[in-house]
Model the fold of this input.
Amino acid sequence: MKFQTGLRVDKFVFDGFKELCRGERLMVGEAFQRLMEVCSKAGSVTLALRGEGLMDADERKADELRLKGALAELRGFVRAVEEGKYRFVTVKDRETRIDQAIYRPAYETAVAMIPKVRDEELIREAERVLEKANEAAEKNYRRMKRALKPKNFSQSKDDARMR
Done:
């Protein structure tokens, strides 16, 4: 059962709130209801507003930055594979395959961060970069496989006679 109420709020605050709701495809009533649910669950309006809003914004920003960093690493990986320059990189004084050193950790970070990010444009960009990185990883894998494949040397007539 729904209950209608008349609230008096500052026009500028309400207009800003409506814009936020529109950007997130929420109706104003839905957003207010969610706010009331959070406050009821927390048992305090003040605690709910302090914790939910500010921590979410800080965590969301940190998650967006982690995602952007992972995407930058993936773009570098794609560029390196396209140029064909690097198959190995040095990590802690040890040569490591580029897909293990860069692709895999950055890919896993990006995939873990996407559900935590709300910026639709960043999510679409992440999907594009992940697709390109997957294609580059497959290309790199095929290239590595060819490079490691044993070469068939034709035997000379002298070698064949010795047998």
